[in-house]
Design goal:
The chain is of the alpha/beta class. It is built from 8 helices and 21 strands. Strands 1, 2, 3, 4, 5, 6 and 21 form a 7-stranded mixed β-sheet that branches. The protein has a 5-stranded parallel β-sheet with strand order 8-19-9-10-15, covered by helices on one side. A hairpin with a 2-residue loop joins β12 and β13.
């Protein structure tokens, strides 16, 4: 059985960031990845995806983005960057290894994969991400839907849907952007929105919202929240005439208390106001090609795209981990407490302003420093 001081599970940005730190510190490690390349998921996200965070605050440790990258890095350049990061730091993942269990035995961690391979280690860094498993809620009658039914994980671009009437279920960031992609490329999209949605623009007068959010996060919560609500009113306004309710909770408070990122608008609102994207309420049932909504309206659709999110599902491979998780099934801390000594989590903090990649840089440094002790 192979043995290593540190085993990193996942070669996405979180796992790569930890590996980069450990390489710099001279700490031996192995890294396993279920895909076939570094940053595997980013090679397969939908084509139009860009980071919502500025490049200066979104690179991994010790390797800034090239100068020619735009301020909001597109998916394909980010995917290539992850490959280059692995090459630069001589990070060589074991590919095709999907973890099935992580258990502590006789003071050591034993990690087993779907191939039947096992690694023994003193420490395990879990970097499998919050988007490990698609969340697919069931709707009455969906098994009889006569059109195409896909999860957003399998959406690449709008080309296959040109000329079709498409229902996007869910208005998070993915749902909003996929609907925009559809309407810009010949489809007729509608978004099913069950409840209020917090929306903020990606930029205000050329200033990235991320930078404003980081500034507001330094203020007392009551003041930062009031300013955030005022900014939302000024830049987004009342969306009720278009079928979208605005929640009472301020955008920043929603993030820090629920881990749910507000929708970062890159043009979807304009398309909604122009009537190029329709808004519908929640779904009551599906009959054949027709969807009945909670307000009684019925409409036919050629395709339904689930943009209903993901779950990390850490409990599927770490026995007893539930006691380490919060109400959103995310780890409560980067460093696991007893009796889980030697277990670390990176890439799961959805609550901090400024974007996931910035948080990964912070937490990967914390883990690397702990491993030096």
């Amino acid at each position: 059985m192979p043995s290593t001081p540190v085993l990193i599970i996942g070669a996405g940005p979180a796992g790569l960031a930890v590996a980069g730190h450990l390489r710099q510190k001279g700490i031996a490690f192995e890294i396993i990845e279920q895909g076939d390349k570094p940053g595997y998921s980013w090679h397969h996200h939908y084509d139009r995806l860009h980071l919502h965070t500025v490049k200066e605050l979104s690179s991994l440790p010790f390797l800034p983005f090239p100068d020619h990258f735009p301020s909001f890095v597109p998916r394909h350049l980010l995917a290539d960057y992850f490959v280059e990061y692995a090459r630069h730091f001589n990070i060589q993942p074991h590919y095709g290894e999907s973890v099935t269990s992580v258990v502590k035995q006789n003071g050591k961690w034993l990690t087993t994969t779907s191939k039947g391979n096992s690694w023994e280690s003193d420490h395990v860094v879990v970097a499998t991400g919050v988007n490990r498993s698609p969340l697919e809620p069931h709707f009455k009658g969906q098994e009889n839907f006569k059109g195409e039914w896909i999860h957003s994980r399998n959406y690449c671009n709008a080309k296959p849907f040109a000329g079709k009437q498409v229902l996007v279920i869910g208005m998070g960031n993915t749902g909003a952007e996929i609907a925009l992609d559809l309407c810009e490329n010949g489809a007729k999209p509608f978004i099913s929105v069950r409840g209020p949605v917090n929306i903020v623009p990606r930029e205000v007068l050329g200033r990235p919202t991320q930078l404003t959010a980081l500034m507001l996060a330094k203020l007392p919560y009551w003041l930062g929240d009031r300013l955030g609500v005022a900014l939302r009113k000024l830049t987004v306004g009342n969306l009720r005439p278009y079928g979208i309710e605005t929640p009472e909770i301020p955008p920043a408070k929603q993030l820090r208390t629920t881990g749910k990122t507000p929708v970062i608008d890159v043009g979807t609102l304009k398309a909604i106001k122009e009537g190029r994207i329709g808004i519908l309420p929640g779904i009551a049932q599906i009959e054949g090609a027709e969807v009945t909504f909670t307000d009684g309206r019925k409409m036919p659709f050629d395709t339904i795209i689930l943009c209903t999110g993901y779950k990390p599902h850490l409990e599927q491979f770490i026995p007893g981990v539930s006691e380490l998780l919060d109400a959103q099934d995310l780890p409560k801390s980067v460093i696991a407490p007893p009796p889980f000594e030697g277990l670390y989590f990176v890439g799961f903090d959805n609550y901090t302003a400024g974007g996931t990649l910035g948080v990964i840089r912070r937490d990967s440094a914390i883990i690397a420093d702990e491993l030096m002790c």
